Amino acid sequence: MDVKMWTYIIVGLTFALYIGIAIWSKAGSTKEFYVAGGGVSPLANGMATAADWMSAASFISMAGLISFMGYDGAVYLMGWTGGYVLLALLLAPYLRKFGKFTVPDFIGDRYYSNTARTVAVICALIVSFTYVAGQMRGVGVVFSRFLEVSIEMGVVIGMIIVLFYAVLGGMKGITYTQVAQYCVLIFAYMVPAIFISIALTGNFLPQLGFGSTLNDGSGMYLLDKLDGLNKELGFAAYTDGSKKMIDVFAITFALMVGTAGLPHVIVRFFTVPKVSDARKSAGYALIFIAILYTTAPAIAAFARTNLLNTVSNKEYALMPDWFKKWEATKLIKFEDKNGDGIIQYVKDKEANELTVDQDIMVLANPEIANLPNWVIALVAAGGLAAALSTAAGLLLVISTSISRDLIKMQINPNISEKKELLYARIAAALAVIVAGYFGIHPPGFVAAVVALAFGLAAASFFPAIIMGIFSKRMNMQGAISGMIVGISLMIYYMLKYKFGTFDGGKDAVAGLQKDWWFGISPEGFGTVAMLANFIVALIVSKLTPPPPAEVQEIVEHIRIPRGAAEAHAH
After folding, report:
1. Mind listing the pLDDT tens digit for each residue in 183-199?
2. Cβ proximity of 233 and 316 under 8 Å
3. 485 vs 316: CA distance, rounded Å
4. Which helix (H) or strand (E) holds 293?
5. What percentage of the chain carries pLDDT values higher than 70?
6. 563 — pLDDT class (breaks 50, 70, 90)
7. Above 50 in pLDDT, residue 569?
8. Quick one: which H or E segment has residue 208?
9. 148 φ, ψ to 5°?
């Protein structure tokens, strides 16, 4: 059977499973729609959180980024993994104890203000839409290659699938679908990695293969060979970094604190029965996430080695079948500048004849390595599972922000539960359409778009949540002004240095790098915007009255573990 047939079978079966789960777990109440009724087991929630957390950026884009950036790509690994630890230890249990469904809900109540709630809703919508654009782009890339449709058509198919189970099942449907999606995506990620690791290094575990010698009789280490291949073509050595240390630090930190402020991950901790279950599910999720994250650098190195060996200085006419198929998606481009029919893949832009989209590396890897057709189709199903699981979580945040935090909490407090559920579903449907538009007209490749979403979350939510939990003195004026300054600064910097909005459009972006503030890229600027948020919030709160006594008591109560107060009294 060919790849297309296998793809239809494997993707068809996984989609049937997701839709079956959505119908089986249809939400009947707002509590089921928002937090799955609060009765999910820690193990299932750990798997669902891992699937929610590992988006198309983790599955499709991260190893692709590392394979092109080499050492510099490690910032994504460190930032995203470290961020999850920060979220699990520092925020999740406290937010769970506060007992609110959403981040805007927490901010609205903790800062005793509907203005604060509205600012938080706007921030949640900006973060979620930026993030979901990356997921839809990932869905489009997978469909365009494996079902041989255009990227635009791929995005539309993805929209229809997500719409079905997110709108029908809400958080209940999404949670159990994500458990299935985790199993699909991790299996799809590990199988080709194990195959290629055995083929290249003889090592069963990709994590060990990454640091092993090649089994081609040369006795060379994989990374030494890769350094040599890169240098021959004029690229920097794979294991050398070229980014400034301040930018590495800023990106890593922005990704970390951005994780801790991501509304769709935080809401997962409300789906378990108790605070202790929130801690347990965070621990499980970390193990499930680590399986993929420790494998990504190995996949990146394998993919880069195989790509350079297959295409560099080879005759175009003799290129294998996979090359022509990816060419049809326009994600690989070959222009024969000197007319010799040989692919020149070099760093020098004038001489280089090959352009490779970073997002295809994980998906094309099994084909480049000549793995069986069913493995190639399995990777397509895994990429879709990763993108759709995160997209569904984000759409739920968007619909909850509108139906609960805007309509129920502010516009119409007496709304019936049935009406609220209807509004939540309508909001999810509208969000899918907007997300689809961004997927068809994306601002860059998947991981870059997602990194910007983390910067926005770091700039807006993280300081408000941290000070809301740990500072009794932080008041509504401080939190509101901090969030507005933080997110405005981040948006301005993104528009200026990522999209060239004020300086001549996309073409000007590369030339603007030398003007970056403090030498920090847009992906890392969330760190600066977050510091601005903290500073403004602290200054404004000092100059304005403290929060009411009952709010200070709530803050005290969140931080003290249950039972500690009684023990202290004795």
Report:
1. 888 988 999 999 999 98
2. no
3. 53
4. helix 275-311
5. 91
6. very low
7. no
8. helix 206-209
9. 55, 45
Q: What is the mean pLDDT of residues 128-147?
A: 78
Q: What is the pLDDT of residue 564?
A: 44
3-class secondary structure, 354:
strand
Please calculate the CA angle 292-293-295 and round it to the nearest 5 degrees. 65
Q: Which tokens in the block code for residue 118?
A: 């509205």
DSSP per position, 233-268: TTPPPTT---S-HHHHHHHHHHHHHHHHT-HHHHGG
Tokens of 149: 């449709």
pLDDT tens figures, 395-412: 877 887 888 778 887 888
Sign of CA dihedral 520, 255, 205, 304: negative
Tell me the domain boundaries of the chain.
3-33+40-561
Written as one string, the DSSP assignment of 137-179 is HHHHHHHHHHS---HHHHHHHHHHHHHHHHHHHHHHHHHHHHH
How far, CA to CA in Å, does 446 sit from each of 75, 134, 322, 429, 449?
A: 16, 5, 22, 22, 5
Which token pair is 546? 């403290």
CA dist 5 → 119, 142, 147, 384 (Å): 48, 15, 9, 17
Decide: 292 and 330 in contact? Cβ < 8 Å. Answer: no
pLDDT (mean) for 164-168: 67
What is the average per-residue pLDDT within 262-289? Answer: 81
Q: Is the pLDDT of residue 112 over 60?
A: yes
Dump the DSSP string for 1-61. --HHHHHHHHHHHHHHHHHHHHHHT---SHHHHHHGGG---HHHHHHHHHHHHS-HIIIII
CA distance 117 to 211: 49
Q: Which residues contact 217 (CB under 8 A, 6 or more apart)?
A: none
Question: What is residue 488's predicted lDDT score, i.e. its pLDDT?
Answer: 94
- Measured in degrees and rounded to the nearest 5, phi and psi for residue 354 equal -125, 130
CB neighbour list of residue 231: distance below 8 Å, 6 or more residues apart: 237
Query: What is the rounded distance in angstroms from the CA atom of residue 255 to the CA atom of residue 264?
Result: 15
Burial group, residue 319, by CB count within 10 angstroms (0-12, 13-18, 19+): middle
Instruction: Give CA angle at 515 (510, 520), nearest 5°.
Output: 90
Q: What are phi and psi of 213, to 5 degrees?
A: -85, 155
Residue with tokens 């910032």: 75
Neighbours of 558 (CB within 10 A): 19
Dist. CA 47–CA 51, nearest whole Å: 6
What is the dihedral sign for C-alpha 230, 235, 240, 246? negative
Cβ burial 386-403 (10 Å sphere, 16+ → b, else e) = bbbbbbbbbbbbbbbbbb
Domain 3-33+40-561 CATH class label: mainly alpha
Angle at which helix 446-470 crosses helix 549-559, to 10 degrees, equals 110
Q: Which of 2-11, 106-115, 133-142, 350-359 has the lowest mean pLDDT?
A: 133-142
pLDDT, tens digit (0-9, with 9 covering 90-100), for 292-332: 999 999 999 998 988 888 888 888 888 888 888 888 888 88
